[in-house]
Write a structure and sequence with these properties.
Elements lengths: L4 H68 L4 H14 L3 E8 L2 E4 L3 E3 L21 E3 L3 E2 L6 E10 L5 E9 H8 L9 E6 L5 E3 L15 H8 L4 E9 L2 E8 L6 E8 H13 L8 H21 L5 H15 L4 E8 L4 E4 L5 E3 H7 L18 H6 L5 E8 L2 E9 L6 H26 L9 H14 L4 E8 L2 H8 L1 H18 L5 E6 L2 E7 L3 H16 L2 E4 L2 E4 L2 E7 L4 H15 L5 E2 L3
Parallel strand pairs: 23-24
Antiparallel strand pairs: 1-2, 1-7, 2-3, 4-6, 5-6, 6-7, 8-9, 8-12, 10-11, 11-12, 13-14, 13-17, 14-15, 16-17, 18-20, 18-23, 19-20, 21-22
Helix pairs in contact: 1-5, 1-6, 1-10, 6-7, 6-10, 7-10, 12-13
């Protein structure tokens, strides 16, 4: 067959068309998968933000209830404001406690205003139609007294003198937003909050946007929400000459719309990154199809990472998805413990200090993933994989190295695919750690709670670390303090003990509120005698503390019992508890043997 040059020329255009159609299909498929992944991540961010705000405003409602009960019992307004001052000092999210009654306004920091009944209609938090016993959240406004963007929860009550009163707790939205700022969708996304009724921005990483009309929330969207479509997505709106998308959720009691999104470019750039690198090899259509199939699998598995709700589940899922992609014997996930300043693998087999890790992963080398098999400066890799090849995946959020995943026993790995998993793993780890921190903290004292303490005691027992002790501490005659000086004074005593424990005990000690007026301390000492002396000094320091609140003052003492961390978890706690009950102000050491 005589193939003429013109025949070859005639095949060029059809071949180019086939190639670009194939590439277009690959790009479009990846775009759909990337888009779905981005939307899922945004929905997860909104869900976490909604829960965080619910916890905060539940706490505010509880404070309002207690403050209202105080006024019902005919407490002087000056005393009431003094209690508010103490509350503001211990709650960084709250900026002002106030009361409006009979034409006068009283607030924390000595603020008073009289004969202002005619001016009240201009106050953003004032609603004259509110019935007694009802509460509501104000619109966003710039506070005249604190110079902070604020929203206020207001409750209407009838005081002991039968006069109507508006009591309020003002929240600093900038301070409240600090935790939500950790939630990001892809590279350029963030969480923000909009008032559904006024369409004003309430929370936003760009503080200049607070109080301004929202670009993404249109009157049409508000109408749809009021008609029952409280969840959904806002596709394709322009902001600062860039296209964006957002996922929204208006199912809350605040009258707010919570949104999370990112630049549309984030989705397209990630999607087309999978196919565009092979455009020069357009003739290898089969390879492109294979890449498309792999990328779909990567994104499907990556989305599964964002659905886990714990570190063990994340470690298990990470092993599954990585082994599905590359030949790999094992994946070891390390996470950073901020309290202990250590990197600990999820299975609690290896522990490395922050200083050790920073020596081989300095700030300017955090993106490096390859580990040489000849010159290994990675301390962790030398311990967990001394003879096998390894691949390091740093997991970074807000410039903080939150975790490291090591792929063990793997040959050459395509960083391209692994980097996609890193994006998903970073988001998943961020969600898990944020949920865990909310779960492990005692909301009143900001100490760790009982569950967190038990986990770390079990870790010490499992590793058979010697020289660790568990102390149980109880405030003496705490019921008499509550009955004689009031529950609010008792709360101040608890807060005082918490602050003194953090101040006196070493940074490495784990201090927890075990329940009520009982605290626990997990600490290291060279011997039981040293531990005894350390706790005696602690008791002495606490006995010299004095609590001042609402014109009252008092000292307090504590009883302490402690036990060596040896044996079973429950037996260690039981031994320390028994020592506490026997102590009666005189510390005794309980030996388990």
């Amino acid at each position: 067959m005589d193939i003429k040059p013109k025949h070859l020329i005639q095949t060029i255009i059809p071949l180019i068309v086939v190639v670009f159609l194939s590439l277009s299909y690959v790009g479009y498929s990846d775009l759909k998968v990337s888009r779905a992944a981005a939307y899922q991540e945004a929905e997860d961010n909104v869900s976490v933000a909604n829960e965080y705000l619910r916890i905060h405003f539940n706490s505010v409602e509880n404070h309002l209830y207690l403050l209202g009960q105080i006024l019902v019992r005919d407490v002087a307004i000056d005393d009431y404001i003094a209690m508010g001052d103490a509350l503001i000092v211990n709650q960084t999210n709250l900026s002002e406690v106030g009361i409006y009654t009979q034409g006068s306004y009283y607030a924390t920091r000595g603020i008073e205003a009289h004969n202002i009944a005619k001016k009240m209609e201009s106050r953003p938090w004032y609603n004259p139609d509110t019935k007694i016993g009802e509460s509501y959240i104000s619109p966003i406004y710039m506070s005249r007294t604190t110079d902070k963007w604020s929203v206020t929860v207001v409750k209407v009550i009838k005081m002991a003198n039968q006069q109507l009163a508006y009591i309020l707790l003002e929240t600093d939205v900038t301070e409240l937003y600090k935790q939500l700022a950790l939630l990001k969708t892809m590279e350029n996304g963030y969480v923000y909050v909009v008032d559904m009724h006024s369409r004003q921005v309430i929370m936003h990483p760009d503080q200049s946007r607070i109080g301004t009309p929202s670009v993404s929330v249109s009157p049409e969207l508000v109408s749809q929400i009021k008609q029952g479509k409280t969840k959904g997505a806002i596709d394709g709106y322009m902001y600062k000459m860039r296209w964006k998308f957002s996922v929204y959720d208006a199912q809350n009691a605040f009258g707010w719309i919570l949104l999370s999104g990112t630049l549309t470019q984030d989705i397209t750039s990630q999607a087309f990154n999978l196919g565009a690198v092979s455009i020069t090899l357009f003739c290898v259509i089969g390879i492109m199809v294979l890449i498309n199939l792999i990328s779909k699998r990567v994104h499907i598995n990556g989305r599964q990472l964002t659905e886990v709700d714990g570190l063990v589940a994340l470690d298990k899922k990470l092993n599954t998805v990585i082994k599905d992609l590359v030949p790999c014997e094992n994946v070891v996930l390390f996470t950073y413990n901020e309290d202990l300043r250590e990197y600990i693998d999820v299975r609690k087999r290896y522990i490395f200090s922050q200083e050790e890790v920073e020596q081989f992963i300095p700030h300017d080398k955090r993106q490096s993933m390859r580990i040489s098999t000849v010159n290994r400066d990675d301390l962790i890799a030398r311990h967990i994989s001394p003879t096998r090849a390894a691949f390091r995946i740093p997991l970074i959020n807000n410039d903080q190295l939150q975790g490291i995943a090591y792929l063990l026993g793997t040959p050459a790995v395509l960083p391209w695919f692994v980097n996609i998993y890193r994006v998903y793993a970073q988001g998943a780890l961020n969600h898990v750690l944020l949920r865990q921190r909310i779960k492990d903290k005692d909301q009143m004292t900001n100490l760790m709670n009982k569950n967190y303490l038990r986990t770390h005691i079990q870790q010490v027992i499992s590793k058979k670390h010697a020289g660790y002790y568990l102390a149980m501490l109880d405030i003496d005659d705490f019921k008499m303090i509550n009955d004689g000086l009031g529950h609010l004074f008792g709360d101040q005593v608890i807060l005082s003990v918490a602050e003194k424990l953090k101040e006196i005990m070493p940074d490495q000690a784990i201090i927890a509120r075990y329940g009520g007026d009982e605290f626990s301390i997990l600490f290291a000492a060279s011997s039981h005698l040293v531990a005894d002396v350390q706790l005696q000094d602690l008791r002495l320091a606490l006995s010299q503390s004095e609590v001042h609140f609402n014109g009252k003052k008092s000292t307090y003492t504590v009883s302490v019992g402690f036990s060596a961390v040896i044996g079973e978890l429950d037996s260690v706690i039981s031994s320390a508890d028994n020592a506490l009950y026997r102590s009666c102000l005189v510390l005794k050491y309980v030996d388990d043997f």
